[in-house]
Each structure stands twice: as structure tokens, then as C-alpha cells.
Specification:
With 110 residues, the chain is of the alpha+beta class. Helix content is 21%, strand content 23%. Bound molecules: guanosine-5'-monophosphate (5GP) and zinc ion.
Length: 110
Amino acid sequence: MSDDCLFCKIVKREVESRFLFEDDICVVFKDIHPAAPVHLLIVPKKHIRSVNDLISEEESIVSHLFMVARDMAKEQGVDQSGYKLLFNVEKGGGQVIFHLHLHLIGGWKR
Ligand code: 5GP
Ligand code: ZN
């Protein structure tokens, strides 16, 4: 937990957000400024700043985020049409919330 981290506050339900999924490792909620018809954030409960800060013991957390993303894509009906999975890393990579999160983006009509 980082005291002034928005996603830690969302994970602890100190900031309002509706979870589409939750387990021991992560939560999933909609991005507040969606970049596509489907834009979910898959967020580990553990505070990790970015991909740069991952340690080997956290490898299973990252693989779990991808498996949850796969399931959420199916649940949202974009698994066959296709989607993007994205980690922004640090400022130059577009990261603005410094708590690791995987973007699931899709649902475009093509
Ligand atoms: P980043 O650019 O750090 O990879 O992505 C952060 C994402 O969090 C952005 O897409 C932004 O729209 C989203 N976001 C920022 N604040 C909130 C919030 O309070 N609630 C939700 N649901 N999403 C947020
Ligand atoms: Zn955090």
C-alpha cells in the first residue's frame, strides 16, 4: 500500500469504483476515460510501481493478470473480434498512475 496511490485506494474501496471482477490477486474495473468501447484495467492488489519494479517473486502476479484479461475479454465479447493488452511504463511510456495495471482495450467496429 502506498498512502497517496489512487489505485491502492480503489483496491481498498476507499475510492468508489465498481469491480467487474475481484480475487485475491487483482481487481478489474472500467477505465474512467475509455479509449475504446471496452476499456478495462486489470490491477494487482499489491502496490508495484511499474513493470520496471517487478521482482521475480511477482512473476505469478503478472501471468495472473494476463489470464484474467483473457477471461474478461471473453466476458466482454471481444475475444473473437480482438483487443489490445498494454502496460504503459513510466512517464515516457504514457504511465500516469504509478501502480501497475494492464489495459484491456477493444470493441471497435471494423
Ligand atoms: P496509465 O496511463 O497510467 O497507463 O493509465 C491510467 C488509466 O487510469 C488512464 O487510462 C485513466 O483514464 C485511468 N484512471 C485515472 N483515474 C481513474 C479513476 O479514478 N478511476 C478509473 N476507473 N480510472 C481512472
Ligand atoms: Zn498503489
